[in-house]
Amino acid sequence: MLSTAALLANDAPAQLLPARELMAFTLASHILLVPFGVALPFITLLMHHRALRRNNPVALTLARRWSAVMAVQFAIGIVTGTVLSFEFGLLWPGMMGRWGDVFGLGFGVEAWAFFLEAVLIAIYLYGWRRLKPWTHFWLAVPLPLAALMGAFGIIAANSWMNTPQGFSLDAQGKPVHVDVRQAVFTPIFGPEYWHFVVAMLLTAGYVVAGVYAVGWLRGRRDRYHRLGFTVPFTVAAILTPVQFMLGDSAARAVFHKQPIKFAAMEIVWKTDTHVPEYMFGRLHPDGTISGGLKIPQLDSVLAGFSTKTKVTGLSSVAASDRPTATQATIAHWAFDIMVTIGSALILLALWYAWSWWRHRDNPGSRWFYRCAAIAGIACLVTVECGWITTEVGRQPWIVYHHMRVSEAVTSTGAGALWAMFGIVMAVYVAVFGAFLAVVLKMRTRWRIADEGSAAVHAELPPEADTPYGPRSEPEPSAAGAPPAGGSDHTPGGAS
User: Fold this and answer.
1) Quick one: where's region Disordered (predicted)?
2) Residue 279 forms beta bridges with which residues?
3) CA-closest candidate to residue 272, choices 322, 312, 306
4) pTM score, two decimals?
5) CB neighbour class for 247 (10 Å; exposed up to 12, middle 13-18, buried from 19)
């Protein structure tokens, strides 16, 4: 997986490369939606609660509009997530056939969470004008919990692939005596799960806030844009230092449980103490490193809080049991990009905190809002880098130390897989294009409604009305019949 630039062995099956590329593309595409599926329900309900507690119509409008975006994103996630589910069985039948009974519970949990989330989103959208305010809110409270349950299932499956346990092997090497609890709660599950969940909340917060930061830069300084920026950005800013500590904990868990992956992440060639840290740089097949910034002894300090900490090197295992030099460099760069962006976000969060401490207000600098607008995109980059680090660093194993990727791949011909790859790319371009078009259409509709265009008010239901306020009565037409697009619409016509 995710081995776009990896060097394949000469005896690798011909279908391995297209299978990897197809899985990499679909996973990299789907994961861009995951932060919104996991975290946007929480941020939306946070705004919804603020609206009800403070009787704030602006917050209510924001919550309603975010719920519409949440529904569209969920619909797109259905497509990309379903494709991924099929690909596990179609592209990697060796793994699913042999190990599915051991770690398959995670996929089952994710499926149940998916259906529950679909039902809860439907209830939430339906309830905007049909339920009492607090009843509507409390019925939606399980929605973020369902999203967290879905993340639980996926991370349980992935953490098992990284640190497999909860089974014994019979004489034929097949897993028997499965212990479901151990298979789910593997040694690396906790650090990976919480690191992932906080990353999703942080990313969604910065992305949503970035939309309103752009509006601020374009001169929209009203209460709507201020509140739309402040709530999600505050969530993200609070979680940024927490995420930095969780990331450090996750990296240290990798050091203890997957030492060869850690060696790839830090491009450590020989097992030794007083190991230097390289920021970026390139590892060569002979173990030399070119480029990058070398910081003496820092890698040992980061791994075990002492310069005497021994760090396992890639050369400690056979070449067939470790990532190639190219794969190690990919994992290393992905890890360093993630850490660099995380460090920059801490500075941005401190800037925000300083302004609130000194002035009880958002920073007024345009540079702050420029950085805030970029932060969302940067977070999406870190999400991609996190999965690249996880998957490429585990190579050549699909199940760590138990099954290689080449042993799990399908027997379907390479030509058919390349054709499938082309079809999936075309479908994804169309799907993401439709998603962008719908979101932009909603944005335009909301902006026009906020500007109070008379022409729009004549054609559309009144977006400016709060969901729980009285509906505007349509003016009767000359014939005594209500005009087209009367008041019996979902809130704002967007949900």
Assistant:
1) 457-495
2) 293
3) 312
4) 0.85
5) buried
pLDDT at residue number 134: 92
Give the pLDDT score at 467. Answer: 60
Whether the CB-CB separation of 156 and 189 falls below 8 Å is answered with yes
Closest CA to 432 of 22, 83, 29, 40: 29
Q: Of 369, 364, 371, 310, which is closest to residue 341 (Cα–Cα)?
A: 371
Ranges assigned E (strand) in 393-469: 397-399, 403-404
CA 133 to chain CA centroid, nearest Å: 31
How far apart are the C-alpha atoms of 290 and 280, rounded to whole Å? 9
Mean pLDDT lowest among 2-16, 161-175, 356-370: 2-16
Contacts of 77 (CB under 8 A, 6+ apart): 30, 33, 34, 37
> Using an 8 Å Cβ cutoff, are 143 and 136 in contact?
no
Contact 42, 63 (CB under 8 A): no
| Residues in Cβ contact with 25 at an 8 Å cutoff, skipping those fewer than 6 apart | 421, 424, 425, 428
Q: Are 201 and 38 in contact (CB under 8 A)?
A: yes
Token pair 């791994």 is found at 303
Q: Distance between alpha carbon 438 and the CA centroid of its chain, in Å?
A: 21
Among 76, 69, 75, CA closest to 40: 69
For residue 139, CA distances in Å to 59, 116, 121, 177, 467 come to 19, 13, 10, 41, 16
Rounded to whole angstroms, how far apart are CA atoms 213 and 225?
8
Strand ranges inside 51-126, DSSP E: none
Question: Does an H or E element contain 168, and which?
Answer: strand 168-169
Helix (H) / strand (E) element for 293: namely: strand 293-295
In order of 258, 260, 268, 290, 318, the CA distances from 315 in angstroms are 14, 9, 9, 17, 7
In this predicted model, what pLDDT tens digit does every residue of 376-394 receive, in sequence order? 999 999 999 999 999 999 9
Number of alpha helices (DSSP H) and beta strands (DSSP E) in the chain: 17, 8
Each domain of the chain, given as residue ranges in start order, spans: 16-256+337-450
Residue 258 and residue 254: Cα distance in Å, rounded? Answer: 5
What count of Cα atoms within 13 Å lies in the side-chain half-sphere of residue 44?
27
